[in-house]
What does this fold into?
Amino acid sequence: MATLSVLLHQIDDGTVLLPEFQRGYVWNRDQVRGLMRSLYRGYPVGGLLLWATEPETASVRGGTGGGGSGGGVRLLLLDGQQRITSLYGIMRGRPPAFFEGDPSAFTGLRFNVEDETFEFYGPAKMRDDPRWVDVTRLFTEGLEPFIGSFARHPDTFATYIARLNKLKNLENREFHEEKITGPDKNVDVVVDIFNRVNSGGTALSKGDLALAKICAQWPPARQVMRDHLDQWSAKGFEFSLDWLLRNVTAVATGRAVFTTLDTVADKEFETALAKSSGYVDTLLGAVSGRLGLDHDQVLMGRYAIPVVSRLLHLTPGGTFLDGAHRDRVLFWYVHAALWGRFAGSTETVLAQDYDTVERFGIDGLVGALERWRGGNLEVRPHDFDGSTRGSRFYPLLYMLTRVHGARDFGSGLQLHAEMLGRRTSLQVHHIFPKALLYKEGYDRVHVNAVANFCFLTQDTNLEIGNRAPEEYFAEAEARHPGVLASQWIPTDRDLWRADRYLDFLAARRELLAHAAQSFLAGLRDGAAPVAAGELRPVAVLAEEQDDVRTAQIKAMAEELARLGYADPALDSEIADPRTGRALAVAEAYWPDGLQPGQGRPVVLELDPEMADLPRLEELGYEVFTSVDALLGYARRRNESAAGDEEPPEEPAGPPAPAGDPVHAEFDAAMRSVYDRARSEANYHASYFLSMLAEHGSMETARRLLRSPAVSDGFAALWERGRLDLTVEALVVRPRFAELFTYDEIEIARHRLGQFGWSGPAAEIA
It folds into this structure.
């Protein structure tokens, strides 16, 4: 047994360390909060497993050990890293020397001496409330800083100080230690024990397990791999350790499963890593310079890249034989991405393609892909039916823009970095403005159709603003003849009107499909047009946040991060693992669960009619079709994990007396909002109705205002041009001002103004 205080001192002294093969810190705030709650309540939190070994036996992370003496037995932490790292960070106010991860997971923890709960710092709730004690300050400075403020309240002073003492005394909590010792416990044996012990909890990926064994033999492996990832990140491409390990495995063994690395010696792995990184550089150079796919948002088919790494490894010189060979590889790569070749059982498909490429080269890969697709590698107009930038045909639109020399409507220049000079920043442009389409009654799926996108310089995008195509198309064509055709704009002027928008989309899809098919067939046959030089990268800027859904999802992601959950991938396509068919383009996607390694993958799909929800659920995805529902689920999960009920909210303003006419009028207005939204805007606010039934009108309004993200109802009514029917529009009415605080009214006013509504509230019948 060892007390927590002794363990922390051993970490300070460098006698308790991490072996190099351990993965980094992966806990989130919810897990940290749950650990502190359990410790405070005296619940069991598990023991520790340590490996007692001599300094020369295994490499360690974050120091040499032995207190700098270079000798003596070291204790390497095999099980308990996440717990001990969290406690060290909280009690010392800094991460330990061996730390690798995000320190915000244990930064800013507060303890409420009134209700004995733990939460992370929220300024609105805690700034002026001394009952929320900074836990790190308590451990680093003791009780003295808090005695003065609590002494002013003699009725609670003794209780509060006793609770702080109880929390401070967690330093004396004993942890059961189990040690692995003996000369027969070499690195291989200990790594096997480590992998077995860590099969529960926050799950290790197959790559984590493989890397543990690799780092045991070659300690710098993880850092060298991270260096390569950082170099690609600097060029605009984000990859994971697991993905890079796939490439190394392909080169080193020609196999798809990580376990084949068990037979690879450390020098062989080092060589394979260097070679595979070079092959990735070669392909990225071709993808960027030949196809124009020059940043992460448009990089297609990441798991096709290990196949190309294997192909280049088997090619004399480790590079493309010539331009025709490169183009044929790119033809396969693009089509493998477009049709979801690696959407499902990645290892099975990789194994098949590794075998094919070894026996038949790139021609064999193309033939196998054609057979897998039933002989159909043709791009057709309906393939551009997708919406949002998560569609797999969004990168294809960007590729066509780059390789065909699409021109800017404002300057008439081709969208090449070398031609645009300093004006190299592009933006996604909605050809028909969103505001116009929503006003005309089109739904979000059609508004954000890929066929409604083009790329323009930022200056031109700002200049066009929300003008209708029938205005600015004619001007652009008059100034720069041929500019519309360069962006695949139908020349029939009748299609430029908002009432013909769906016909415009259909006609543009025809043009895009023809251009795509022509270029890709040229890659296969050696006839694709070649630019004078490599396409140089251009910067593609994010859209201005004038879309309420975009702002809603951003606020949702920030709130989930505050609650301790992982960041989602946005606009992510999810494909059927058996057929490669796109099942959904999720607004937000957590492939490893809201907490990595725990729970099922989570999908937020706000256009359920465009997704195959039954198939997603059959495949084990946890699917949400509203932001409100997902946030509610995440909060309930947090409360359940912590075992604490959310403390009751204090009334934000004086309660209205029973029978008060203003209160009664607000009740009627809230219910009328639901009825009018249904009859006048065709929006059924069922979630809002259930809130009214459960909480009443005032509490419902306050809950909606407290939420960091605007509600689904607010977003839906914005899309319909009816913000006058939102709760926020009621709150800002002078008639109801006495029911709300100044801050609540300002929140409502800000939301309405942010999305373009400044008129008087609708009269509520």
